[in-house]
């Protein structure tokens, strides 16, 4: 497996409006620049995921790569919240909810995200000041 960069990497559906707004939400709060990002549609994401047995199928999940580990769905979302400054880490308490329940809620939102929030024809282009945080 290719060596992962030292900072956590969030892989997301680049055409999903909810996902794009979530990435922007994270960037605005991540003043230390902890997270890096790549769309699941990118070559960078394919390369990063190539070394893992467990991989997302399709674009319906967010992926957090951190410390050589791959986290999916609600584990990934909670892992991000845990690393943000302020009160956001308090939401990590939801890790106590059994994963099948958390992921069922996650899957329900994922199934409906295009209908509720829409989607773009192409992946988001990051703002110039954010480009260095995006891979590929």
Would you mind describing this structure in some detail?
The chain is of the alpha+beta class and 136 residues long. The protein has one domain (9-133). Helix content is 37%, strand content 12%. The protein is built from four helices and four strands; from the N terminus they run βαβαββαα. A hairpin with a 2-residue loop joins β3 and β4 (69-72). The radius of gyration is 14 Å and the shape is globular. The protein starts with 8 loop residues before the first strand and ends in a 19-residue tail after the last helix.
Tell me the series of helices and strands, N- to C-terminal: EHEHEEHH
Largest sheet: 4 strands, mixed
How many helices does DSSP assign? 4
Radius of gyration: 14 Å
Number of strands: 4
> In what range is the share of β-strand residues?
5-15%
Task: Give the CA-CA distance, first to last residue.
Answer: 18 Å
Give a concise summary.
The chain has 136 residues and is α+β, with helices and mostly antiparallel strands. 37% of the residues lie in helices and 12% in strands. It has helices at 17-29, 43-49, 73-83, 99-117, and strands at 9-12, 36-39, 63-66, 69-72.
Question: Topology of this structure?
Answer:
Layout: E1 9-12, H1 17-29, E2 36-39, H2 43-49, E3 63-66, E4 69-72, H3 73-83, H4 99-117
Parallel strand pairs: 1-2
Antiparallel strand pairs: 1-3, 3-4
């Amino acid at each position: 497996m290719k060596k992962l960069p030292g900072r956590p990497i969030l892989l997301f559906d680049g055409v999903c409006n909810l996902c794009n707004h979530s990435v922007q939400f994270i960037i605005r709060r991540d003043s230390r620049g902890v997270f890096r990002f790549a769309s699941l549609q990118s070559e960078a994401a394919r390369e990063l995921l190539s070394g893992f047995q467990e991989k997302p199928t399709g674009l319906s999940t967010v992926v957090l790569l951190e410390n050589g580990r791959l986290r999916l769905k609600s584990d990934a979302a909670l892992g991000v919240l845990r690393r943000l400054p302020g009160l956001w880490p308090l939401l990590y308490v939801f890790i106590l909810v059994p994963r099948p329940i958390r992921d069922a809620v996650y899957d329900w939102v994922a199934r409906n995200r295009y209908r509720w929030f829409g989607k773009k024809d192409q992946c988001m282009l990051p703002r110039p000041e954010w480009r260095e945080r995006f891979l590929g």
